[in-house]
Amino acid sequence: MIRGVIQSVFEGVIKRFSASGRPDETITNREYFQHYGFSSVPLAGAEAILVQEGNHIVMIASDDRRYRVGLEAGEVCLYTDEGDQIRLKRDKEIYIKSGNKLTAEIANEVNVTAKTATVTAADLIHLKSKAIVLECESLNILSSSGSSAARLKGDFALEGSLSATGSIIDTSGNTNHHTH
């Protein structure tokens, strides 16, 4: 076994690497084995474990202590040098951290089941679909800014009763001066 320092990794049908090994030893264009279902491209300067049998050398593991994430016993984490991570934490918690964008591409269906769900966005939440169905015992639409009310644009049909506190304004700006 040889402890090496990665110089470069090349993607292809067979992943290859170049590294420095023992003093004055350069290893070039050798195969890099990785676990099924997991692929990475370590940065230059990361450390590697190389196995050598005769002239055949393969890299079987890599690590980069410059970016390693501290974990508690039993935790698992995928991480990058930019600070993004997917962490399987203690107490059955999954933590995802992205510095820029999180994208999920699902071909058919997404199901989320939780006791409580919260989505917080600093600027905008945009829902786009052919149809949106909300099923709940009560629905509260709150305007925390106090400057404008919730607005419904387009046709609106109501099945059931409507009650209001305050004025009901029709399209001409009249308040409560019409009959139903």
Q: What is the compact description of this entry?
A:
This protein has strands at residues 2-10, 16-20, 26-32, 47-53, 56-63, 76-79, 85-89, 93-97.
Structure description:
The structure is a single chain. This protein is mostly beta strands. Among the domains are: 2-63, Beta Barrel (OB fold (Dihydrolipoamide Acetyltransferase, E2P)); 67-99, no CATH class. 0% of the residues lie in helices and 28% in strands. It contains no helices and eight strands. It has strands at residues 2-10, 16-20, 26-32, 47-53, 56-63, 76-79, 85-89, 93-97. A five-stranded mixed barrel has the order 1-2-3-5-4. A hairpin with a 5-residue loop joins strand 1 and strand 2. The chain is elongated. It starts with a strand and ends in an 83-residue tail after the last strand. The model has no long low-confidence stretch (mean pLDDT 90).
Q: How many alpha or pi helices?
A: 0
CATH topology of one domain: OB fold (Dihydrolipoamide Acetyltransferase, E2P)
Span of the ends, CA to CA: 87 Å
- Please write the string of helix (H) and strand (E) elements: EEEEEEEE
Instruction: Note the beta-strand portion.
Output: 25-35%
The shape is elongated
Structural class: mainly beta
What is the overall pLDDT average? 90
Q: What is the share of helical residues?
A: under 10%
Biggest sheet: strands, sense, closure? 5 strands, mixed, barrel
- pLDDT below 50 for ≥5 consecutive residues: which ranges? none
Keywords:
single chain; 180 residues; mainly beta; OB fold (Dihydrolipoamide Acetyltransferase, E2P); three-stranded antiparallel β-sheet; 8 strands; 0% helix; 28% strand
